[in-house]
Amino acid sequence: MRGVSAPDSTGAGRGRTAPTRPVRAAAPPPERTTRQTAVEEDSVDAVIAWFAEEGRDLPWRHEDASTWAILVSEVMLQQTPVVRVLPRWLEWMERWPAPSDLADAPTAEVLRCWDRLGYPRRALRLQECARVIVREHGGRVPRGEEALRSLPGIGEYTAAAITAFSHQERAVVVDTNIRRVLARSVRGRALPDRSYSAAERAVATASLPLPRQRSVDWNRAVMELGALVCTARAPRCEQCPLAGNGCAWFAAGRPRAQEDTRRRQAFEGTDRQMRGMIMALLRRDGSAAEDQLLALDEANIERARRGIRTLIADGLAVREGTQLRLP
Ligand code: SF4
Questions:
Q1: How many angstroms does the Cα of residue 23 sit away from the middle of ligand 1?
Q2: pLDDT score for 260
Q3: Looking at ligand 1, which residue's alpha carbon is closest to its atom 8?
Q4: Among 51, 78, 95, 217, which residue is least crowded by beta carbons within 10 Å?
Q5: What pTM value is reported for the model?
Q6: Number of the ligand 1 atom closest to the C-alpha atom of 247
Q7: Separation of 249 CA from ligand 1 center, angstroms?
Q8: What is the average pLDDT across 40-46?
Q9: CA 234–ligand 1 middle distance (angstroms)
Q10: How do residues 61-107 score in pLDDT, each as one tens digit?
Q11: What is the dihedral of CA 121, 196, 70, 63, to 10 degrees?
């Protein structure tokens, strides 16, 4: 699942809120005589046991959560933290509990309800996804990663997550949190590769337990560990079940990354910020005069123009005379 601060995934688990107490003291790691290529069995046990105590109680993890509910949560969580997703997901599920409900909804209303989750193209893709499910799958989310990946907006990660967390099947689920845990615990690196690599895929595949239920438990647990404990900026190794179970990076003294050029682009002054400002106005008022939108950044009118142009191109806004409105 997703972290409190990192965008990620779900995992149909139980548990309470954020973990606060150490689960296992950071004992000296056991000696490894060979280079690790996967998480070992005792480490899998430790992480699953940790999750049973510390995993968060999130509604899309409940046993009665539908596949559609899990799919929506996974799309929302792709680039947005749990704390921001939760109220929006609850509202979506109340308004559009099934794909047919979202398929029939006015697109402007869908975008309004997306609110400030960011990257609103995801909302459009979700509605397209709902329409395809209704049109081609009788209103039911299809089973199997291949069928899922044929849906709009559903990529490798989301298809695997739905397969694991809803259908309870074996699937290699790899989100940013899992990549980070595996990079550190198995490969001894502070950070995963710049983009998801064949080496990372090999480690994730080799680490997935063979028994079906154990694989599901592992996926949800390791994802949560990355979200809550093995965080990007300040991993809490003293609370981590892998610290005493052979985490390679911890055992090596947590060496810093050689270089980290993956700095986040500042949000202030970006085109993305401008698009967000325009969308906020349109969500509030339904439409706005183009002059009003251009005045959002008088020092850089071209930025506002680009925002308007790209929102129209993305299908998030429509021009009507001198007005811009939600589609
Ligand atoms: S011991 Fe530290 S670095 Fe290793 S997996 Fe746990 S939190 Fe991450």
A1: 13
A2: 56
A3: 230
A4: 95
A5: 0.83
A6: 4
A7: 7
A8: 94
A9: 10
A10: 999 999 999 999 999 998 899 999 999 999 999 999 999 999 999 99
A11: -170
Could you tell me if the CB of 229 is within 6 A of ligand 1? yes
**Same CATH topology for 59-165 and 271-325?**
no
What is the DSSP code string of 141-171? PPPSHHHHHTSTT--HHHHHHHHHHTS----
Distance CA 132, CA 6 (A): 30
The verdict on the CB of residue 250 being under 6 Å from ligand 1 is yes
| Fold classification of 271-325 (topology level) | Arc Repressor Mutant, subunit A (1.10.10)
Residue 202 in tokens: 């090999």
Domain boundaries, the chain: 59-165, 271-325
CA atoms within 13 A on the CB side of 237: 20
Tell me if the domain spanning 59-165 has CATH number 1.10.275.10.
no
Catalytic residue numbers, as ranges: 74
pLDDT, tens digit (0-9, with 9 covering 90-100), for 119-175: 999 999 999 999 999 999 999 999 999 999 999 999 999 999 999 999 999 999 999
Residue 249 CB–ligand 1 contact under 6 Å: yes
240 lines ligand 1 (CB under 6 A): yes
Dig out the tokens for 161 from the structure: 């997550």
